[in-house]
């Protein structure tokens, strides 16, 4: 015959315990049996005494037999309770091991390739945001072609890859920046074409950084240069952003870059009048689950890292 606490539990509620409820109930069962008291066992398990009583009663209801003989001063295991205690201990130990393994798995580094041009402060904010979402990011700065290759060879779990504007989740508008204060709010490539009187003078150049040495950007500006009569040597791909910026800081040349990059380099930025140039980015990963883990991060955190306008 069931005890009074058991009869108070609705059969519809406790007929089948959820697996997680079984683990919690077994924790209470093991704690109470080890101390011979619901009050002391509950304190050891760091739960209220009433919760421990409900969980043990639910476990008894689940199995259809009493685990304890209860008296006003103490509780003792029934023969059935003595038989079930070893299994309950193993289940509790296994659950604790699983929880420990889960915490370790959360801390396992998630290696992701990001553009080499990303500034350190936004990268640090992205890593911090990842930790708030139980994702330990290990960021690997690389150029656009290398990032795509790292994902293909599974050397990273995910990458922010360069794509045409229409295919991107994140968009970073580009313009041309120069050392001196411009006279107008827009720059036209055709103004870089040398007049007859200037043919012997040094022609101003447009410098592309490696991040923009991708067909959907490089080909657009090259075709525009051809259309407005620029010489091929007037559009140059630099070996690094530092080299490109150095050329611009020491001359009247221009740098193709984002507004934020121009601000960081103390250059004056303007949009291109004849052409709308945008860096597009999306997430590519080795598995769908890895891609979803990155997409689950706040989009604004990734946008800030990539230099998207506020």
UniProtKB/TrEMBL annotation:
Keywords: DNA-binding, Transcription, Transcription regulation. GO terms for cellular component: protein-DNA complex. Residues 27-78 form the HTH lysR-type domain. Signal peptide: none annotated. Gene3D superfamilies: Winged helix-like DNA-binding domain superfamily/Winged helix DNA-binding domain. The keyword Transcription regulation applies. GO terms for molecular function: DNA binding; DNA-binding transcription factor activity. Belongs to the LysR transcriptional regulatory family. PANTHER family: HCA OPERON TRANSCRIPTIONAL ACTIVATOR HCAR, TRANSCRIPTIONAL DUAL REGULATOR HCAR-RELATED. This is DNA-binding transcriptional LysR family regulator. It comes from Actinophytocola oryzae.
């Amino acid at each position: 015959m069931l005890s009074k606490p058991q009869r108070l539990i609705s059969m519809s509620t406790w007929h089948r315990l959820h697996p997680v409820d079984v683990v919690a109930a077994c924790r209470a069962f093991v704690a109470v049996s080890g101390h011979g008291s619901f009050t002391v066992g509950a304190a050891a398990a760091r739960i209220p005494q009433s919760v421990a009583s409900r969980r043990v009663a639910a476990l008894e209801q689940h199995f259809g037999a009493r685990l304890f003989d209860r008296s006003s001063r103490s509780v003792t295991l029934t023969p059935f309770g003595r038989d079930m205690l070893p299994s309950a201990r193993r289940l509790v130990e296994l659950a604790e091991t699983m929880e420990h393994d889960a915490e370790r798995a959360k801390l396992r580094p998630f290696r992701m390739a990001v553009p080499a041009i990303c500034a350190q402060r936004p990268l640090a904010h992205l890593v911090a945001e990842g930790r708030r979402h139980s994702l330990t990011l290990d960021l690997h700065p690389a150029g656009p072609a290398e990032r795509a290759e790292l994902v293909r060879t599974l050397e990273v779990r995910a990458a922010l890859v360069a794509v045409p504007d229409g295919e991107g989740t994140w968009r970073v508008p580009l313009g041309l920046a120069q050392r001196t204060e411009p006279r107008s709010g827009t720059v036209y490539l055709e103004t870089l074409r040398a007049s007859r009187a200037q043919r012997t003078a040094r022609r101003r150049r447009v410098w592309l950084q490696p991040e923009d040495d991708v067909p959907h950007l490089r080909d657009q500006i090259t075709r525009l240069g051809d259309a407005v009569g620029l010489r091929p040597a007037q559009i140059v791909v630099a070996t690094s952003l530092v080299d490109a910026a150095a050329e611009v800081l020491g001359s009247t040349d221009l740098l193709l870059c984002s507004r934020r990059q121009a601000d960081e380099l103390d250059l004056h930025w303007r949009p291109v009048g004849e052409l709308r140039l945008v860096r597009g980015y999306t997430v590519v990963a080795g598995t769908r689950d890895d891609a979803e883990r990155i997409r689950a991060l706040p989009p604004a955190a990734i946008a800030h890292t990539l230099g998207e306008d506020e």
